[in-house]
Design a protein that fits this description.
By secondary structure, this protein is an alpha+beta fold. It contains 17 helices and 28 strands. Bound molecules: glycyl-adenosine-5'-phosphate.
């Protein structure tokens, strides 16, 4: 019997799916607020017994697919990728060369005496529908009295999330006097401060709003005149290694794992057998002083990244960019994410860094961005920018002599000048950069199911390979030799899989607990076991039960986890 496909998720009675996910993952030991007993610390999270298993499963699969079993390249052979684990703190010049000291900034708005917000997270409910109809409520603003000045503001990561606040969040509605605001074609209609209103939700960090921030109401107090114009705020967290705490001894906690790879590009070339094209992969912690950490673990101040820098000849870079774009989408699908919840978003040319030739995000339909999608991974064509910068700033030569290319060029009859200039180059880089902790969030969102008819009501339909616990092993009752047989099975299986032995409580309660933490299979030793050496297998998603031989349990689990 094959594992039944999970049912389409019914809607949770909890209007806010995110609240349900956050509460379940706290209750069952996936994710805790860091320093909770001291009231928590914003932007930091601890991964509990099940959270760390889930995170490690994703981490190990990425490592397997990148380093141990990298994909087959266009030439029919596996591409070359090696692993690395570089230090979190590198020489401070690293971040000058990379551009992070000068340019790793978020635009910040001060709400005087209240707080500080990211300007690009400030959304306004502005009068006027896109078809030109202006709403009733309008305030003249700044140099252009025709600009649709917001009558309400919120902090959100997308227009979709902002709209949720304006239409459904009681606190926001009370603050701005919003009543019965509903979506209509192209915008929103309802009542604001007792008057008819029609309008749209707009991100206020736009050139046309420059100079007008003091005309916007504060998202915290509703007061107008308290917001400053956006200013750049560097996101790197600093520290002072050694005994002296002064500017000369300032270093940074890495804001990305990528730079550690560039710093070791030459080491890897000199000490291993790789040749261009090749990749270096790294998984590890990164730190960003996010001003508005939000949406659970989506944007944290300490998080984990999985990044791979693929070094290739400049002339092949676009081909490799296309290759990695496709491979990365295939990888996300291999986690069991439904295809309709993933999409590509190509960056517009004005979004690209000056050195970047192309960049695409893999986006996911998070409950808090819906109906919009939010970033999960970026795949960037970084040209030769990083190696050139580090070469210039460190004075170390980082160019590459491509002997094979030289031979090919000679054979193809290229001119001696072409052979010379083309066979020595600074490699281009294609960078698939994703968030491991963000992937944990995606799998929790993807797996969450609500079903009123089930004993647990909520369950997590993880693809078995990524489930923190693969199987529960239970004696039906604590007598008649059942615990001994069950424990023996558990001791055999735990050598190969993460499994749990639980002899207590009613069998229904034990199944319900397994469902809630997303364990795909439960094996129960009952009265029949002693007679015919079979056990009951219960499938989490369908709740169907079948009997298999106790001797076949290991093979059964191996087959299911490989599916
Ligand atoms: N080296 C390129 C780089 O770091 P990025 O888009 O800034 O690119 C890559 O980060 C990925 O890291 C993002 O797509 C996201 O999944 C994850 N990430 C970035 N900032 C994060 C944060 N504050 N909290 C959690 N994950 C984050």
């Amino acid at each position: 019997m094959s594992t039944p496909t999970p049912p389409t998720p019914p809607t949770s009675p909890n209007a806010n799916i995110m609240e349900a996910i956050v509460s379940l993952s706290k209750r069952r030991g996936f994710i805790y607020q860091a320093s909770e007993i001291y009231g928590g610390i914003r932007g930091f999270w601890d991964y509990g017994p099940l959270g760390v298993l889930l995170k490690n499963n994703i981490r190990d699969w990425w490592w397997k697919c990148m380093v141990e079993c990298p994909p087959i390249g266009p030439d029919g052979h596996p591409v070359d990728i090696v692993g690395l684990d570089s230090a979190i703190i590198q020489h401070p010049k690293t971040w000058e060369a990379s551009g992070h000291v000068a340019g790793f900034n978020d635009p910040m708005v001060d709400d005087i005496g209240v707080s500080r917000y990211r300007a690009d997270h400030l959304y306004g409910l502005c009068p006027g529908l896109p078809n030109g109809t202006r709403g009733e409520v309008r305030e003249a603003g700044g140099t252009d009295p025709g600009l649709p000045m917001p009558i309400a503001t919120v902090l959100a990561s997308s227009a979709g999330e902002a709209a949720e606040f304006f239409t459904g969040d009681k606190k926001t509605q009370k603050l701005f006097g919003i009543k019965s605001l509903e979506r209509v074609a192209g915008g929103f209609q309802g009542q604001v401060k007792g008057r008819d209103f029609s309008g749209t939700v707009i991100c206020l960090y736009q050139p046309e709003f420059k100079g007008l921030f003091n005309k916007f109401p504060s998202p915290s107090t509703g007061e107008v005149g308290k917001l400053t114009e956006p200013r750049a705020f560097n996101l790197m967290l600093d520290t002072y290694p050694g005994p002296i705490r002064d500017e000369a001894n300032k270093a940074y906690l890495r804001p990305e794992t990528a730079q550690g790879i560039f710093l070791n590009y030459k080491n890897v070339l000199d000490t291993t057998r790789v040749k261009v094209p090749f990749g270096v992969a790294q998984i590890g912690k990164s730190f960003r002083n996010e001003v508005t950490p939000r949406n659970y673990i989506f944007r944290s101040r300490e998080f984990e990244q999985m990044e791979m820098e693929f070094f290739c000849p400049p002339d092949d870079a676009l081909m490799w960019y296309e290759f990695w774009r496709n491979e990365r989408m295939k990888w996300w699908l291999s986690l069991g994410i439904r295809p309709e919840n993933l999409k590509f978003r190509d960056h517009d040319s004005d979004e690209l860094a000056h050195y970047s030739k192309a960049c695409v995000d893999v986006e996911y339909l998070y409950p808090f961005t819906a109906p919009d999608f939010g970033e999960l991974e970026g795949i960037a064509h970084r040209g030769s920018y990083d190696l050139t910068q580090h070469s210039t700033h460190s004075g170390t030569k980082l160019d590459y002599f491509d002997q094979e290319l030289q031979l090919k060029l000679k054979e193809s009859g290229a001119s001696p000048e072409d052979v010379k200039s083309k066979s020595r180059y600074i490699p281009n880089v294609i960078e698939p950069a994703s968030g491991l902790t963000r992937a944990v969030l995606v799998l929790l969102c993807e797996a969450y199911r609500y079903d009123e008819s089930r004993p647990s009501k909520e369950y997590l339909a993880f693809k078995p390979q990524f489930a923190p616990v693969k199987a529960g092993i239970f004696p039906l009752v604590q007598k008649d030799g059942m615990p001994e047989v069950a424990e023996k099975l558990y001791l055999d299986l735990r050598k190969h899989f993460t499994v749990e032995y639980d002899p207590k409580q009613s069998i229904g309660k034990r199944y319900a607990r397994m469902d809630e933490v997303g364990t795909p299979f439960s094996f129960t030793i009952d009265g029949e076991t002693a007679k015919d050496q079979t056990v009951t297998v219960r499938h989490r998603d369908s709740q169907l039960q079948e009997r298999i031989g106790i001797a076949n349990v290991k093979a059964f689990l191996s087959a299911k986890l490989g599916e």
